[in-house]
Design brief:
The complex is a heterodimer of chains A (93) and B (389).
Chain A (H helix, E strand, L loop, with lengths): L1 E5 L2 H4 L7 E5 L3 H11 L3 H5 L10 E5 L2 E2 L15 E6 L7
Chain B lengths: L13 H6 L1 H4 L5 H10 L1 E5 L5 H11 L3 E5 L24 H12 L4 E5 L8 H5 L4 E4 L4 H14 L3 E7 L2 E7 L7 H4 L12 H4 L4 H19 L8 E6 L4 E6 L21 H4 L5 H9 L2 E2 L1 H9 L4 E5 L3 H6 L5 E2 L5 H4 L8 E5 L4 H12 L5 E4 L2 H8 L8
Parallel strand pairs in B: 1-2, 1-4, 2-3, 4-5, 9-13, 10-11, 10-12, 12-13
Antiparallel strand pairs in B: 5-6, 6-7, 7-8
Classes of the chains: A alpha+beta (93), B alpha/beta (389).
Bound molecules: zinc ion.
The site of zinc ion (ZN) has 8 residues of chain B, from helix 8.
Chain lengths: 93, 389
């Protein structure tokens, strides 16, 4: 399935400064695997050392949080948009 | 504290009727709504970028009691986005300047100023006094503290957060709705996400996100419309696009879930893994050189290679004529460096170059130092003509 992954601003520096990446994948795990094989530095920002998605990074398929779907096994449809949404703290200083 | 017309919360004075007339003639607000605003108590955590539009619009709208927590002073770098303050406020306490500005904007309201950091010790006592909290902080420990205090006390927390040209907004802690921990159970470890000072922010962005928070706060008070509950609003200013993600209450949430384990406030610095982080740990592992020592060695003609790990746009602001390899590019450009030479790495403040030094040490570089305090310290100690940013 052709899907689009939207890269959030804080992580773009690890993804060749891209705002989004189009790729082929049948599941969220495949999509993120393909993404991190293209951009190796992204890996440590998305996954902890034990290979689990980090808890301050949420992944959405369209507008649904994959934690409430089938997590990384969530299957994808042609044209789906995957959003990576990390927590950001900025506000004032 | 101003008590003049706050003393009769059940009616508007003639002056107030005139002041709020554009609210009063709207059926969605009207006299009933304006009196709700007058009786409302809202706490602003932080008087910075998000706090500026929040304070200005909530004061202007006639929110009867505004609490503001802040302990910073106004500096020149704030003025690009913190529109409460003027150039003549630089050096003053933010609270003092904000109180003066907001009282001038609306003398009818009461402003409570808390010159303190919000802590696990004082948070419940302060938050308890208010109906709604608007969170405009800039760090993870305070975000989790505000969240937990609001959940424990059952107060809605109008959330906004920004980074460069992207923002997030939502309402947490609304009865039956999700909280910040439902969205993000844990904060990122320090160093993994660039801070605002490193990341920068487009000045209008906190204005937009802070205005969204102000609007949601007013709607909560008025009980009108559809509040931003159960939805995470994402804003991308560059593409001028709003997107919305569904946000659910997490049944496993530690503070609001079915088997909650957090029933009182905890140590948030520890929770966020930043106990004494930069103060103690770094100088131990990373070899450093002070700007003065570096200058002395360069003047002596020593062969020292300067490595600048900032971004190209920062190099344009000012530089030490170093070789530029942004930190993010270092792994694939490491071959440009000669490990037999002495190398001093620097960035703006010494944080990124510290990471660069650690990385290069692991890559087999032994004659490498971090410029202590970065180009900022160079400007302070060696060459004041180098602009600070
Ligand atoms: Zn929760």
């Amino acid at each position: 399935m052709g899907v689009k992954v939207i890269i959030p601003t804080p992580l773009r520096q690890f993804a060749g400064k891209r705002e989004s990446v189009d790729l082929e994948a049948n599941t969220v795990a495949e999509a993120l695997g393909s993404l991190t094989s293209q951009f190796g530095e992204l890996k440590k920002h998305l996954y902890s050392d034990d290979g689990r998605l980090r808890s301050f990074v949420n992944v959405y398929v369209n507008d649904e949080d994959i934690r409430y779907l089938q997590k990384e096994k969530t299957t994808l449809q042609q044209g789906d948009t995957i959003s990576i949404v990390p927590s950001i703290a900025g506000g004032t200083e | 504290m101003k008590e003049s017309s706050a003393n009769n919360p059940a009616a508007l004075s003639k002056e107030e009727v005139l002041r709020y007339s554009r609210h009063l003639i709207m059926p969605e607000v009207g006299m009933e709504g304006q009196l709700k605003l007058k009786k409302a108590k809202v706490l602003l955590v932080g008087a910075g970028g998000l706090g500026a539009p929040l304070g200005l619009y909530l004061a202007a709208a006639g929110v009867g009691r505004l609490g503001i927590i802040d302990f910073d002073a106004v500096d020149f770098t704030n003025l690009q986005r913190q529109v409460t303050f003027g150039t003549s406020d630089v050096g003053r306490k933010k609270l003092e300047a904000a109180r003066e500005r907001l009282s001038n904007l609306n003398p009818e309201i009461q402003i409570d100023a808390y010159e303190t950091r919000l802590t696990s010790e004082n948070a419940l006592d302060i938050v308890r006094e208010y109906d709604i909290v608007a969170d405009g902080t800039d760090n993870f420990p305070t975000r989790y503290l505000v969240n937990d205090a609001c959940v424990l006390l059952g107060k809605p927390n109008v959330y906004g957060s920004i980074f460069r040209f992207e923002g997030q907004a939502s309402i947490f802690g609304y009865p039956g709705g999700p909280c910040y921990r439902c969205l993000y159970p844990e904060p990122p470890p320090p160093g993994l996400v660039p801070s605002c000072a490193e990341g920068g922010v487009l000045g209008v962005l906190p204005g937009i996100i802070g205005c969204i928070q102000a609007m949601e706060t007013l709607k909560l008070i008025l009980g009108n419309g559809e509040p931003l509950v159960g939805r995470l609003l994402l804003f991308d200013a560059l593409r001028m696009r709003f997107r919305e993600m569904k946000l659910r209450k997490n049944l496993e949430c530690l503070v609001c879930g079915e088997h909650r384990t957090i029933t009182k406030l905890i140590d948030y610095a520890e929770f966020c893994g930043i106990r004494g982080e930069e103060v103690e740990a770094k100088p131990l592992d990373i070899p450093e050189i002070t700007p003065r020592d570096l200058k002395a060695r360069l003047d002596r003609g020593d062969d020292i290679y300067i490595l600048d790990v900032r971004e190209p746009h920062e190099y344009q602001i000012c530089n030490l004529r170093g070789h530029l390899i942004p930190l993010g590019d270092l792994p694939r450009r490491v071959s440009e460096l000669d490990s037999s030479r002495e190398i001093v790495a620097h960035c703006r403040s010494g944080k990124r170059s510290g990471e660069a030094v650690q990385f290069l040490q692991k890559a087999g570089f032994h004659k490498i130092w971090n410029l202590k305090g970065g180009i900022l310290a160079w400007s302070d100690e060696v060459d004041p003509s180098v602009p600070k940013y």
